[in-house]
Amino acid sequence: MGLLYKRGNIWWIKYYHNRKPIYESSKSDKKMVAKKVLEQREGEIAQGKIPGVHFEKIRFDELSEDFLRDYRINQKKSIERAEISAQHLKSSFEGMRVTEISTSKIEAYKEKRMEDEASNATINRELAALKRMFNLGAKCTPPKVDRVPHIPMLDERNIRKGFFEHPEFVAVLNALPSYVQPVVTFAYRTGWRRGEVVDLQWSQVDLEQGIVSLNPGETKNDDARTIYLDEELKVVIQKQWDLRKKRGNLCLYVFPNEAGNGKIKDFRGSWDIACKEAKVGKRIFHDLRRTAVRNLIRAGVPERVAMTISGHKTRSVLDRYNIVNAEDLKMAAVKHEEYLKGRNEKKVTKTVTVGNFGDEKGANQNGSTP
To answer: Which CATH number do you get for residue 302?
Structure first.
């Protein structure tokens, strides 16, 4: 039961929510006004709502801004992707009350984005952003939403499975500008992400030991990573060092831009031209990452070690990269045939015979087997 009482000239109300007493001012010196406020709060509690919180006043725009602010405060690396997702969501939900955003409206949004020819993976990233907005709103004090709507995701059948066979990689490599070739070679052999490669600085390289390290916070998942360079990569890194000394500008980056005085910004144009000249079709830089993981596993490197080198944390992504192609299937057929042929040719030696009445006899008296 609720209670009405006065503090000075103002009427206050007392009620219970989840067995906890809540005290609230009616902001009025009239008892009837306080009584109506109390009845409203008790009605909200009876409906399973949080009393005193007017969710209908909160709009999508506020949740979206809170979502982006969370990315900025926590300095999340994917903030650009988050901003793009928020912009697309804004096209459908801008100005809408959060209480109006239902599963049916979300389904309509998905349909609209599919008509825009957005991929399932892209739409899912946007839906994940919307869900994050609601979850942040629910965690606020006081909360800004009273529920998180059901947001069904799409099947990502359009997951990329591009990779390079070695002759294709060599053809693309030879068609690239000379300053980009070391970047591509490093990515092809390590599986590192593009940003991790172009951001690599000399302070992270130990030429004498043949070690390259990424510190915590410098990777996508914020984990530190150390790799040992193979002979080819040692040659690549040494050439970069010699070129740096020759230029005399002491650039911080291992793989500098064409002028050799700063970080590589963008080489997508050169990449697309090289892929066209090499006649390998439409490829993206990330295909090098997939290829490196596949090559490591096929070389017999344990999966856990391959994940440590490339920087993968989950097996699900690793499994997508370990792609089987026609050559793998042919090799499997050859190995299977060799195995069966070996079994057929194997001689089976009889070591035990069964005599009359089930007596077991190992050999004749002269020592020979029957």
So the answer is: 1.10.443.10
Judgement on whether residues 191 and 296 belong to the same structural domain of the protein: yes
Backbone angle region of 281, left / alpha / beta, with phi > 0 → left and psi within -120 to 50 → alpha: left
Q: How far apart are CA 101 and CA 116, in angstroms?
A: 21
In whole angstroms, how far apart are CA 133 and each of 55, 63, 110? 14, 5, 17
Please give the model's pTM, rounded to 2 decimal places.
0.55
CA dist., res. 13 & res. 33, Å (int): 10
Q: Which amino acid is at 220?
A: K
Q: Which of 52, 70, 88 is a domain's end point? A: 52
Confidence category of residue 319, pLDDT binned at 50, 70, 90? low
Among 139, 154, 182, the domain-final residue is 139
* Alpha carbon distances (Å) from 364 to 111, 352, 356: 84, 11, 14
Single out the residue of 156, 160, 121 nearest to residue 287, CA to CA. Answer: 160
Distance CA 321, CA 99 (A): 41
pLDDT tens profile 183-201: 999 999 998 989 889 999 9
Q: 212: which 2 tokens?
A: 């390259």
CB crowding 296-305: b at 16 or more within 10 Å, else e: bbeeeeeeee
Note whether 283 and 184 are within 8 A (CB): no
Q: How many CB atoms lie within 10 A of CB 215?
A: 13
- pLDDT digit string, tens, across residues 46-59: 877 767 666 778 99
Domain count, the chain: 3
Three-state DSSP state, 338:
helix
